Amino acid sequence: MKVACLGGGPAGLYFAISMKLRQPDAEVTVIERNKADDTFGWGVVLSDDALDNLRENDPQSAEAIRECFAYWDDIAVVRNGERTVSGGHGFAGIGRKQMLLLLQDRARELGVDLQYETEAKPASEYQKDYDLVVGCDGLNSRVRTEFEEQFKPSIDVRPCKFIWLGTHQKFDDAFTFIFEKTKHGWVWIHAYQFDDDTATVIVECRPETWEAWGFEDMSKEEIISTCEEIFKDHLGGHELISNADHLRGSAVWMNFPRVLCEKWYHENVVLLGDASATAHFSIGSGSRLAFDSAIALAEFVSTEPTLEQAFERYQEERRLDVLRLQSAARNSLEWFEEVERYLDTDQTQFNYALLTRSQRISHENLRLRDPDWVARAEKWFQEKSGVPADAPVRAPMFAPFKVGNMALKNRIVVSPMAQYKAVDGTPTDWHLIHYGERAKGGAGLVYTEMTCVSADGRITPGCPGLYAPEHEAGWKRLTDFVHAETDAKICCQIGHSGRKGSTQLGWETMDAPLKEGNWETISASAIPWSDSNPAPREMTRSDMDAVTAEFVAAAEMADRAGFDMIELHAAHGYLISSFISPMSNTRGDEYGGSLENRMRYPLEVFNAMRGAWPAGKPMSVRISANDWVGDAGVTPEEAVRIAKAFSDAGADIIDVSAGQTSVEAEPVYGRMFQTPFSDRIRNEARIATMAVGNIFEADHANSILMAGRADLVCVGRPHLADPYWTLHEGKKIGDRLAPDWPLPYHAGRDQAWRLADREAEMVIRA
To answer: Quick one: 563 and 662 in the same domain?
Structure first.
């Protein structure tokens, strides 16, 4: 087989090595326009497991690289003159130039033809003469551009500016992040040692700061001098160094391009490394992606019967890992892009947020790395929550919290989840047992499903209400049980279905009209939910007044029924939400158009409810922080203003959900996928929030809380599967301090703890 590798970076060289190891007779040529010893980067970071993969593939080159590594175990975070260090992270650094030279030596040893100072021709010109053409020519790949129609690349150029520098100052004790507040805004560095004498220093800032400093008009020398001045307290008198002699002035600054290709191959041409996908430097996985993909491509080309099948397997099996790393990298780069929102938080929380920013490191994983640091952080969180300093330390999910005047024993909330079991709006024995079990299950706060303000405001005939005396009596029976038998609090979520009403039960056809007995629906505008739903009637002023009165009556009834808290449901496309979203509100009066106008009626309803609800009891609002339709709907940026408006009106906490406002929505799912919206609202608007959305482990909850991404964590579906989710998750993480187990269940608790301890011992012995 004849192979042409267009690009002599880590990806191209390591693929060439991997091919020759599997096919010694293959003719492999690497074509690189630069000199063999040219490099425009500094150090390369590899994790322990990345090193293991290299060792398994080619022990000889792995050992040569390993001998040149600078190792560190700690991460240091420096801000406002305070330095926080955590350990157990296990990284290694090597100079990019040194690594390339070692890979070149190994490639030559295996018989690879290395052609440096050679400008590659278009890939199409190599296709006839070579069996395989590998486009490994970096993030500005000419190969990718040449076959753009086939590869269909998506390139997202991120806003932050960064410059890749070096220094002889020692950063050999820890991977170090340093944040400096300047007269023009915050500037920060990522610094790490990669040989005995040299460290990488990546300087980064937001574009507004970059512009304010005037970096665009500076020479390269002026840029470096300015960066030296900013970080002089950390450089020990050493200079910052650039090796980008081919660039001048502001060109030494870069914006990171996030590259993702729909397809990685075309005919006998295949993409590899940064040409096919990039991962932000803040997670140190770019080289890891390149090496792992090079190994996989060489393996499949050597084992699959055809090149087409090899490419298919390569793309299929590598894409998931690449997307996972890209997802982690996206989380990380977005955290740095918005880092100024966190820079006035406590050092402990800031450090924790930085360490867990990618979501690859969880709370318990961090505990394995540095148990002492995590214990100190948990103690800080607990004391901040009002727990006495001498109390036993527990995980953040078990720290108390106050919503208004309501004290919660912990931070776990049972999300509102529709049951569709009410009879003419009245809760039944089903609701008593369902909510009663979850109140017994250890959560601090239990939500009812959306409870409707009128018969025509129900989603389905099975939805409960608060508009008749029998409803009040039914809910009173339930709240009395919760208060008598548990120490949980209970919240009634109050809403009106709007255009999403008069539909079938949830286990029938979701959101589809009733087969018979439909009622008229109302909404902000006469826009049907879907093509299958009838158009609602656009609300008149008199309709608004009548519905507002219904919300007030429901709030008063909730108070008499004994609820500790109420929530206005202003999310998910229901009536109040239909006014907020431009996807459902096209009114031409003072209730449509601008966000201020669209918020007018929701705030009228909230204010009326707040006035009827006792001042000493808390009230929340659930919002959809993203319509998932881009700028056509509510955006996360706009959601901050929405949350702030409700908070200013008297909301004690914002329940941050997303979507379900339009059938055109294209949500991006994943673990904790809605938490960033809560994070943004909490830390930009300085409002208490609840996070919700695919949170299903104690690890998730503790990470969210400890990092300051929310004040409470809502857990939905897991509570459907396990009413005692909170107690069981506490058992899993070794919490033995919970006083929450009902007295009749203590024997079961003790057995559960014994079994969990025994299982942990077996894992340790293994």
So the answer is: yes
Q: What is the distance of C-alpha 60 from the center of its chain?
A: 38
For residue 187, what are the domain limits? 2-337
Please state, in angstroms and rounded to a whole number, the distance separating the CA atoms of residues 405 and 690. 17
Question: Which is it for strands 445-447 and 489-495: parallel, antiparallel or unpaired?
Answer: parallel
- The answer on 751 and 702 residing in a single domain is no
Compute the radius of gyration of the chain from its Cα atoms: 29
Q: State how many domains the chain has.
A: 3
Q: Is 601 a catalytic residue?
A: no
Going by C-alpha positions, the residue among 509, 532, 541, 535 that lies closest to residue 522 is 535
User: What would the DSSP string read from start to end of 510-569?
Assistant: TTPBPSS-----EESSS--SSTTSPPPEEPPHHHHHHHHHHHHHHHHHHHHTT-SEEEEE
How many Å apart are CA 340 and CA 145, to the nearest integer? 36
Q: Which residues of 692-718 are buried (b: 16+ CB within 10 A; e: fewer)?
A: bbbbbbbbbbbbbbbbbbbbbbbbbeb
- In three-state secondary structure terms, 251 is helix
Query: Is the Cβ–Cβ distance between 708 and 342 less than 8 Å?
Result: yes
481 vs 438: CA distance, rounded Å: 12
Question: Consecutive sets of 10 residues in the chain, 766 residues long: mean pLDDT of each?
Answer: 95 96 97 81 77 91 88 92 92 85 95 95 95 94 96 95 94 94 97 90 97 95 96 96 66 88 96 92 82 96 96 93 86 94 94 92 93 96 96 96 97 97 98 97 97 98 98 98 97 98 94 94 97 96 98 98 98 98 97 98 98 96 97 97 98 97 91 93 97 95 97 97 96 84 92 88 66
DSSP run (H or E) holding 240: strand 240-241
Strands 265-266 and 269-271: antiparallel
The pTM of the whole model exceeds 0.85: yes
Catalytic residue among 126, 574, 591, 601: 574
- CB burial class (10 A; 0-12, 13-18, 19+) of residue 78? buried
| Tokens encoding 739 | 């006083």
Question: Which of 549, 553, 517, 522 shows the shortest CA–CA distance to 538?
Answer: 522
Question: Is residue 502 within 8 Å of 578, Cβ to Cβ?
Answer: no
SS3 sequence of 320-364? HHHHHHHHHHHHHHHHHHCHHHCCCCCHHHHHHHHHCCCCCCCHH
The pair of structure tokens assigned to 42 is 């500094």
Note whether 566 and 708 are same-domain residues: yes
Element (H, E) at 203: strand 199-205
What are the Cα distances from residue 139, in Å, to 136, 148, 273?
9, 14, 8
Q: Kindly list the distances between the CA atom of residue 145 and the CA atoms of 138, 261, 708, in Å, as whole numbers in the listed order.
A: 12, 11, 42
**Burial of 303 (C-beta count, 10 Å sphere; 0-12/13-18/19+):** exposed
CATH of the domain at 567: 3.20.20.70
766 secondary structure, DSSP code: -
CA separation for the pair 356, 337 (Å, rounded): 15
Report strand pairing: 412-414 vs 445-447.
Answer: parallel
* Boundary residue ending a domain (337, 366, 390): 337
DSSP state of 128: T
Q: Answer yes or no: is 120 within a domain.
A: yes
